[in-house]
């Protein structure tokens, strides 16, 4: 039985028992508690001769094995890559007597992934090969984060979410409400223990309360809480806002009508005054004003100086 090299670091379809690929034998699955030491066993049967090499590679969870990066290389001299030298050591040094195992000191969750032990002997190709090891660092769940998605109005649906950023094995999530609370209709609650979601449908005021989520695995548990307060939607405020908006709109239209009315009336008055003034000017030009004429009649028989004007008063 063996693992295909195309598998990813997060999944290896092998059992916990030792298995062989050509002449290399490894333990396919290794579990270690965070902070403890983990030994990745790898043995081979070939006789190390000139050209013998040993290589260890690592692929983070979700990374294909073909993209694994070199951690250790031995070809008569030991070479370490990056900071692994301070955290990893060969169980047998030099690794030329059939044991290529390594030990990781104080493993951390970031050390989880796929490790590849690759043995190459040019003088004995039948004794060459590689083995794949899945390392899982066991850690208790971190404190989860609780969130609410949706609006807590009567008749609405909301979803409570709960998630721990760390935890191996993968945490299982469970929800519960505070004590002394009335039971809710079973059809209105849907919980998913794998994703940590809790669906509350067709809310009523009975849903009001504190909800607690617990994330747990074999190493421990952690919890978070969230308060839910269900209220009636403020439809009256919405209607009032609409009415107020309509009232303001009517006032604006009325003000505009009044403004244009007065403007029109003022403009009409100006037009009338202009027409009247023009008529007066035209009338003056056609009939110029003349002073009153006084006519006098004199008696023709009398001399001018003795003539009495009919306009003069009688003496």
UniProtKB/TrEMBL annotation:
Q: Where are the transmembrane segments?
A: 236-262
Q: Where is this region: Disordered?
A: 274-305
Entry's SMART domains? IG, IGc2, IGv
Task: Name the InterPro entries for this protein.
Answer: Ig-like_dom, Ig-like_dom_sf, Ig-like_fold, Ig_sub, Ig_sub2, Ig_V-set, VSIG2
Q: Does the keyword Phosphoprotein apply?
A: no
Ordered alphabetically, the record's keywords are:
Membrane, Transmembrane, Transmembrane helix
UniProt-recorded name of the protein: Ig-like domain-containing protein
Q: Which organism is it from?
A: Pangasianodon hypophthalmus (Striped catfish)
Q: What is the lineage of its organism?
A: Eukaryota, Metazoa, Chordata, Craniata, Vertebrata
């Amino acid at each position: 039985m063996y693992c295909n090299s195309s598998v990813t670091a997060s999944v290896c379809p092998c059992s916990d028992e030792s298995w062989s690929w050509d002449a290399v034998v490894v333990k396919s699955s290794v579990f270690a508690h965070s902070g403890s030491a983990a030994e990745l066993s790898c043995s081979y049967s070939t006789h190390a001769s000139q050209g013998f090499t040993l290589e260890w590679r690592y692929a983070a969870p979700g990374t294909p094995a073909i993209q694994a990066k070199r951690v250790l290389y031995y070809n008569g001299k030991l070479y370490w890559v990056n900071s692994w030298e301070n955290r990893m050591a060969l169980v047998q040094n030099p690794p030329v007597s059939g044991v290529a195992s390594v030990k990781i000191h104080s493993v951390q969750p970031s050390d989880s992934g796929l490790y590849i032990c690759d043995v190459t002997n040019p003088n004995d190709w039948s004794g060459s090969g590689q083995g794949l090891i899945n390392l899982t660092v066991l850690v208790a769940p971190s404190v989860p984060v609780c969130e609410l998605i949706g609006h807590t109005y009567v008749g609405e649906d909301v979803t409570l979410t709960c998630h721990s950023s760390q935890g191996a094995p993968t945490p299982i999530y469970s929800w519960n409400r505070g004590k002394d609370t009335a039971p809710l209709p079973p059809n209105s609650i849907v919980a998913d223990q794998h994703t940590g979601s809790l669906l509350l449908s067709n809310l009523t005021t009975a849903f009001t309360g504190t909800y607690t989520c617990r994330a747990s695995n074999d190493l421990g548990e952690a919890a978070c809480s969230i308060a839910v307060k269900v209220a009636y939607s403020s439809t009256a405020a919405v209607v009032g806002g609409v009415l107020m908006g309509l009232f303001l709109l009517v006032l604006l239209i009325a003000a505009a009508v009044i403004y244009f009315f007065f403007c029109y009336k003022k403009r009409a008055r100006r037009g009338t005054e202009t027409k009247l003034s023009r008529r007066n000017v035209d009338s003056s030009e056609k009939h110029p004003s003349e002073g009153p004429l006084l006519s006098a009649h004199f008696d023709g028989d009398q001399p001018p100086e003795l003539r009495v004007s009919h306009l003069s008063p009688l003496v």
